[in-house]
Amino acid sequence: MKIEDLHQLFLKFPYATTDTRKIIEKSIFFALKGNQFNGNEFAQNALDKGAAYAIVDDEEFVVSDKTILVTNVLQTLQELACYHRNHCKAKIIGLTGSNGKTTTKELISIVLSKKYRTIATKGNLNNHIGVPLTLLSIRENTEIAVVEMGANHMGEIAFLCSLAQPDYGYITNFGKAHLEGFGSEEGVILGKSELYEFLMGKNRTIFFNADDPVQQKKLNGYGNKLGFSRENGENYQIKFEGAHPFVTLEVAGQIIRSKLIGNYNFMNCCAAVLMGKYLEVPILDIKIALEGFTPQNNRSQIIEKNGNHIILDAYNANPTSMKAALETFEKIPGNNKIAFLGDMFELGETAHKEHQYIANLAKELNLNNVYLVGSNFNRTNTTYTKLGTFHDLKSKLAGNPPKNATILIKGSRGMALERILDLL
């Protein structure tokens, strides 16, 4: 079946799904393959659960006229998404960076939703599968789509841009993330900047942090850009009023008090303000949107439990975000402060050095009560309590959980440190 014919079918059944556990009635099921599964085997199950059609790439599973055989299901999903994007009126905002992508995406979306019919990447569906699914969620009346793009190796952002064809773009920052795939911090900068390269090649609008020297250098000489800055009068000025612990900013005479902790979230708020102003969202609506946003899903989430004041930031971690979290935590008042830090993944040959750096940094910040969890932290040279596994931590806290403490929980997704909540 040609992509244009498949697209006509998709317009009649405009929901794409890849998981039979989440089948939407009258959707199209794409039978993707993975290292541990073969989606073709679930095609009939998807149809039985109400899917209108199933796309497969194994002739053995063509069992009815509701099963469509293609050469490669993943490639078909991507081609359909690109074709659909090019037939939609929506403007696309491409978003990437080492840290803060998802929070920034949510902030931009909630601000622009005050004026426009806006959709955004759900959760963390930001890869070669998630981006196509986001593009296929654009409807005829969608005006703006905020598309988050993740990457852990060179060329991935360029590929995602070829699918999404963004009209605007923003990079949150360049940090020590996915060093195993990118090879170095310079590799991270080159890989993430593929978004800038795409936009500059088509003379499309770039939003940027004008106080970031790396971004300034990358965009030097490019005309179609708009930056925000605390002090540089050549750019849109947004004043940082502090984070004690919640970020407060002043813009156009309005004080905006967010529910986000940490200086690093100031830049995330600024990106949403800048895009809102550029796209003519009234400043009072921007204020209402940002002040109404509450972080969720283990991202700088504030939780009160059994007398403990908890900062749950366990969705993911890398050396840059870990450093920012510790520096923020150090400034929060409290006599009984405890940090639970979990291993940072995908650091390759730099893993030992970066974990030792974080252990040393915690000591420099005079954080006295720190638990280091995971095999990488277990190899560091430090006087802090080291626990090789989560089970070791569970045993350590059994019968003596923290009480009336201010707690930071931070680690990579694979550590699943949100489980600490059950130990408190």
Secondary-structure map:
Elements: H1 3-12, E1 16-17, E2 28-30, H2 43-48, E3 53-56, E4 67-69, H3 73-85, E5 91-96, H4 101-112, E6 118-120, H5 130-135, E7 144-148, H6 156-164, E8 168-171, H7 179-182, H8 185-192, H9 194-201, E9 205-209, H10 213-218, E10 225-229, E11 236-237, E12 239-243, E13 246-251, E14 254-261, H11 264-278, H12 283-291, E15 301-305, E16 308-313, H13 319-331, E17 337-342, H14 351-364, E18 370-373, H15 375-378, E19 385-387, H16 390-397, E20 406-410
Parallel strand pairs: 1-2, 2-3, 3-4, 5-7, 5-8, 6-7, 8-9, 9-10, 10-11, 16-20, 17-18, 17-20, 18-19
Antiparallel strand pairs: 12-13, 13-14, 15-16
EC number: 6.3.2.10
Catalytic activity: D-alanyl-D-alanine + UDP-N-acetyl-alpha-D-muramoyl-L-alanyl-gamma-D-glutamyl-meso-2,6-diaminopimelate + ATP = UDP-N-acetyl-alpha-D-muramoyl-L-alanyl-gamma-D-glutamyl-meso-2,6-diaminopimeloyl-D-alanyl-D-alanine + ADP + phosphate + H(+)
Enzyme class: ligase
